[in-house]
Amino acid sequence: MKGKLLYEGKAKKLYATDDAEVVLVEYKDDATAFNGEKKGTITGKGEMNNAITTLLFTLLAKEGVENHFIEKINPREQLCRKVEIVPVEVIVRNKAAGSMAKRLGLEEGTELKTTVFEISYKNDDLGDPLINDHHAVAIGLTTFEELKAIYNMAAKVNEVLSAFFLKIGITLIDFKLEFGRASDGRLLLADEISPDTCRFWDAATGKKLDKDRFRRDLGSVEDAYHEVLSRMENAGE
Ligand code: C5P
Questions:
Q1: Is residue 110 over pLDDT 70?
Q2: With a 6 A CB cut-off, is 198 part of the ligand 1 pocket?
Q3: How far is CA 143 from CA 36, 106, 136, 137, in A?
Q4: Residue range 180-194: average pLDDT?
Q5: Could you tell me if residue 236 is inside a domain?
Q6: ipTM of the shown complex
Q7: CB of 60 closer than 6 A to ligand 1?
Q8: What separation in Å is there between the alpha carbon of 96 and the centre of ligand 1?
């Protein structure tokens, strides 16, 4: 079943399976930040992110967002459809935080008059630089047509997830998505959606329930991930 290691990323390992169209994704406890400059381990993160991504990709599929997730096969591993990753990271922001707050001199949590969509070139050597649509098309990462489909899917993901998290008392501040091309040409949402890739703030207290606790040494990192997962499980999703 679990074939050869195809790729090892910062938080996941990807293995081949007997089926050429299917990959096995193993979620690791390793955590990195600032493009790999800060390294650590978050105990139980692999299992929690596998569980959180499973619940969210299942919810998104139900809401019509086609994605690569097939099934969770054990606490740390899931099967996904094999895709060619579009080398563009899409960031969706509902409130200013992180790099956008810093770059534009805004206080974190500042309300935005519109949802902000950013793209960056997925390239570790360059530190995933922020680019615009024209850069992405000019250097051959994607096409305007594919980008249009990507933005439409990202907006739908934001709609579904913002409403879901609101119900469990969490404000979805921002998040990062990746997309892939399946062998049949379909564009699928890929990668993961977890506290590693989203900013989650408790709606009542503003407490950070995501990887910023690791990035900024705020403590109680595992507890925050666990809090998100248990609220999701109690919501019955
Ligand atoms: O750091 P920045 O503010 O640009 O991050 C925006 C959102 O995208 C955050 O939720 C962060 O966790 C996520 N992100 C990510 N992977 C990256 C860059 C950002 O998951 N390489």
A1: yes
A2: yes
A3: 29, 32, 8, 5
A4: 98
A5: no
A6: 0.97
A7: no
A8: 12
Query: Is there a single domain that holds both residue 99 and residue 128?
Result: yes
Cβ of 164 less than 6 Å from ligand 1? no
Phi, psi of 157, rounded to the nearest 5 degrees: -60, -45
**CA–centroid distance, residue 3 to ligand 1 (Å):** 31
Residues 72 and 88 in one domain: no
What strands, in cross-sheet order, belong to the sheet with 69-74? 5-8, 12-16, 22-27, 77-81, 69-74
Q: Evaluate if pTM is beyond 0.90.
A: yes
| Among protein residues, the one whose CA lies closest to atom 5 of ligand 1 | 98
Residues 4-42: pLDDT tens digits?
Answer: 999 999 999 999 999 999 999 999 999 999 999 999 999
Domain count, the chain: 2
Token readout for 10 is 């910062």
